[in-house]
From TrEMBL:
PANTHER family: 2,3-DIKETO-L-GULONATE TRAP TRANSPORTER SMALL PERMEASE PROTEIN YIAM, SLL1102 PROTEIN. It is a multi-pass membrane protein. Belongs to the TRAP transporter small permease family. The chain crosses the membrane at residues 40-64, 70-93, 114-135, 168-189. This is TRAP transporter small permease protein. Its main location: membrane. InterPro entries: DctQ, TRAP_DctQ. It comes from the Bacteria. Pfam families: DctQ (PF04290). Residues 53-183 form the Tripartite ATP-independent periplasmic transporters DctQ component domain. The keyword Cell inner membrane applies. The complex comprises the extracytoplasmic solute receptor protein and the two transmembrane proteins.
Amino acid sequence: MSENREQIDLAATSEGLREEPGAMVIPPEAGLMGRLVDRVAYIFAAGIVISAAVLLMEVFLRYIFNRPTIWAHETTVFLCGLAFTFGGLYCTARNSHIRVVLIYDWLSPPVRRIFDILISIICAIASGFFAYAAWHMVTRAVWTPAGDIRLETTGSAWNPPTPALTKLFIFVVMILLVAQFLIFAVNYARRARS
């Protein structure tokens, strides 16, 4: 029985979560930010449902009434793009992002904690580089060369500023990813000391 329990625990560490009834999905190391990200995720999940409804409506309008809209495609691309971008932050807050655990699962708990700290710091640095790259996209999408604010648009008949808004959102999410990984690193270090 105890041998079976150890196998279950090893499997749970590779995902960072335990699938027990009533268990908290957000790990305590994620802190307040992780809990806030988990709550806000419902908004982006609703965006996926809304985009599916818009596409269904567009199919109905186009093929039944022969009256397609000019905004359905760009709206669904925008909503899904925001949801997928937020998904990276959501998976990080839940500590359920994809990782290779071939070596990690064989490590002892103290060494695993050191790896958790190092992995979190490395991920924060990588996210910082992505935030820097996203900032360059934002500067071209939001400001003209003269310094005036002009949001980049799609260039379609509807012409919404969704490209600029998406790039701004990517930048914000990258900054939040840096913060979330640093929160993980600090909390893993605190746990290792105690």
